Structure formats: C-alpha cells, structure tokens
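Hey, can you fold this one?
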Amino acid sequence: MKYVLAIQALTTLLGGVLLGFFAAPQHTYSFISGALVILVSFFLMGWAWGLIFSKKLVALAIGIIVFKYAILGIIIFKLVDQTWFDTLWFALGVASFILSALGYAVKEALREGKEDVI
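Sure. Predicted structure:
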C-alpha cells in the first residue's frame, strides 16, 4: 500500500507541476483536487483496514465504509461548487490512480520474475 501511495503522491506532484506550466490554473487545481481525493481516500482505506483486521470488528468495517463514502460525496459536492472547478480535469486527477496501479503491477511482475529465475 505504501508503494501505491508513493506513486500516487509522485503522480499528483508531477501532474500538478506540469499542468502548472502548460495549462490554465483552474485545470491544475482541478487535477490536483482529484488526485488528492484519491490519495487521501486510499491512505484512509489502508489505515482503516489495518484497524479492522487487527480488531476483527465487522461493525467497524461497515461503519467505515458507510461514512467514508458519505464524506467523500460531501467533499466532491463542495468541490463542484467552486468557481475554478473543471470536471474533466478533476476526472483525470481521479484517473491518475491508474498510473499507481500500473506501477504496482509492474513492480510485482518484476518481483515474481526474479523469484521464478531462482
């Protein structure tokens, strides 16, 4: 999980810097907002699942899932009201998680390839 979060943080930073140079400020803010929503969401998910597995509480899992998506919905609802918000660039920021998933998949494939050789 830490590897995926590190790649997502790097993607957010790199995407924000590049868009800062080549795109309008509202596009940059929207992309960074989407990427940060994903980054924070997955960070909290990793933390919450750690608590759930350590205490083995089903009610805690259900509560976290319900409240996480309610809070996520409120955050997105508040972002949409902002004057600088652009839905396309926000969606691209959310979709930036695909790069993190691909990075993790490549890392695991390389690790498995090394194990098969030995």
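The chain has one domain: 2-117. Let me know if you want another pass with a different chain boundary.
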